[in-house]
Amino acid sequence: MNPSVANQLNQYRDERKKQARLLISCPDQTGIVAAISHFLNEQGCNIIESSQYSTNPTGGLFFIRLVFEILEPQVTISTLKNGFQPIADNFAMKWDLRGVSDLKKIAILVSKELHCLQELLWEWESGHLKTEIKLVISNHQDAKELVESYGIPFFWIPSNKENRSEAEREQQNLFKKYQVDTIVLTRYMQILTPDFVSAYPNQIINIHHSFLPAFIGAKPYERAFHRGVKLIGATSHYVTNDLDEGPIIEQDIMRVDHRDTITDLKKIGQSVERSVLARAVKWHLEDRIIIHENKTIVFN
């Protein structure tokens, strides 16, 4: 890893080593916030950030994200989890609690187009993405020099219809070796098998070069050009076994007109893709996303 990036991450860990994030979704009812606040106060914790959302105050669903500081030296993430479980059971909560300094470990998959990969590497190097990029895997060799210039291991694993399952097994072995918990597809132009996707639920983030649900699948810019669109967009979403239909994390658009060629549309679209994917990955790393059914609640 680049030494300057390693120093930034170590400093961040030191500064946040006593902070934690708590994500909760549950049926809405009275007393939820009071119970959470009372528990954290009893544990000697101080809430420093709180965002919440209710679909319907009477009989709906409740979502909350909390960031808090652990002030008592004897209190740990493990003791908090054990102590919070009875409250979670009482309110039928789905919840996740993790230390802020417990950085997620990323694997990036890429093919021949490198603009999204470059954006993530720039954001990571500049300190905007608090994560460990453990490795990059590609079915081509185009990204090798770029990736290794950042001190990140690069693996070339050819993949096609004939050897896809074998290639995915090799990828999964690497994920296990590097303890990866998040996979980011930066224009990785391969269809993932159902077994692969099922092994990483809500852990695979994709960027789609289209403002979904329009123009799913291949060659969206060509199809958008012939349709005469006036807006070009990009969508970042979690991957499911329904092609390009997973929970959407972030989208954005830019205006185009009749003078723009297919090449122009691709250049404009690539700019949108870069920023949309970077935001989606950042929010995932910061535990700002709660998935409910096929939607996301994003506390951004």
Tell me about this structure.
The protein is of the alpha/beta class and 300 residues long. Among the domains are: 18-99, Alpha-Beta Plaits (2-Layer Sandwich); 201-300, Rossmann fold (3-Layer(aba) Sandwich). The protein contains 9 helices and 13 strands.
Short description:
Helix content is 36%, strand content 28%. With 300 residues, the chain is an alpha/beta fold. The chain is globular and about 60 Å long.
**Residue runs with pLDDT of under 50 for 5 or more positions:** none
Please provide the ordered H/E string of secondary-structure elements: HEHEEHEEHEHEHEHEHEEHEE
Strand content: 25-35%
CATH superfamily of the domain at 201-300: Formyl transferase, N-terminal domain
Question: How many strands?
Answer: 13
Percent of residues in helices comes to: 25-40%
Largest sheet: 7 strands, mixed
Give the arrangement of secondary structure elements.
Layout: H1 3-16, E1 19-27, H2 32-42, E2 45-54, E3 61-70, H3 77-90, E4 94-99, E5 105-110, H4 115-125, E6 132-138, H5 144-149, E7 154-156, H6 164-177, E8 182-186, H7 194-199, E9 204-208, H8 220-227, E10 231-238, E11 248-255, H9 262-285, E12 289-292, E13 295-298
Helix pairs in contact: 4-9
Spell out the key features of this protein.
7-stranded mixed β-sheet, alpha/beta, globular, 4-stranded antiparallel β-sheet, Rossmann fold, single chain, 300 residues, Alpha-Beta Plaits
